[in-house]
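Appendix C reproduces, verbatim, an entry submitted by the partner laboratory led by Prof. M.T., so that reviewers can inspect both the input and the predicted structure.
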Amino acid sequence: MNKDQREIQRKLRILSYADEIGHVAKACRYFGVGRASFYRWRAAYQKHGESGLINRPSIPKQHYNRTPVEIEEKVLHLRSKYHLGSIRIVWYMERYHDIRISESTVFRILKRNGMSRLPRGTRLRKVHTKRYQKHTQANAIDFVDHIIEKFPFRIKEIRTDNGHEFQAKFHWHVEDLGIRHAYIKRATPQLNGKVERSHRSDQQEFYQLLSYKGDVDLEAKLDEWERFYNFHRPHGAFNGKTPYETLREKLQSTKPASRQ
């Protein structure tokens, strides 16, 4: 007697005993089975005979309405390469791949693949090099001159902390350029919220993913990250638009109307 035949005989004994005593609940308790299973077996036996009592294979785990593999791969790539959150992945997929997907679907994909949580803490770098010179007022002045040259709009105010690199020489250099220089209060980083939020994005989406071979490689990676951040990464503060798109719309809205 094989396994299927033994299963058929077991279920027939339970069905027969229930008919004999005329009490389904007592029969189920006696054999240690659930009443839902009993009624399912009895219905199958009445409809298909003994063949209906054979255990059927379980339903395949693959669901027909599951997200296509190629879309899942794109979602996982955006998560692993850029550490984007669910809503930013939704914006990015629609913007650059013309794929509409819900935030809940993105979350399920990430959870199914063990990527629902972003990693915490910066990874140890493989190569340790002397990456930066000590900040000085001369460095700060060179940096602000570079920013003024690159920005496509006039800067009205620069706000800094009270670091030594932002003291008298830097302060009056900026003021002489017609730009107001304001210090935030000590121990109040919340007053510079936009900068602190930008630093958090840099930490989570760039530095935590960073591995480099040297300063030249680091500079190239940083340049790639800045291009992505400004021109391709959807921003929550701009309702999914990039900083470049927001700036372009702002500049276009401030242009004087053309003369008729």
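Residues 139 and 165 are 8 Å apart (CA to CA). Additional entries are available on request from the coordinating office.
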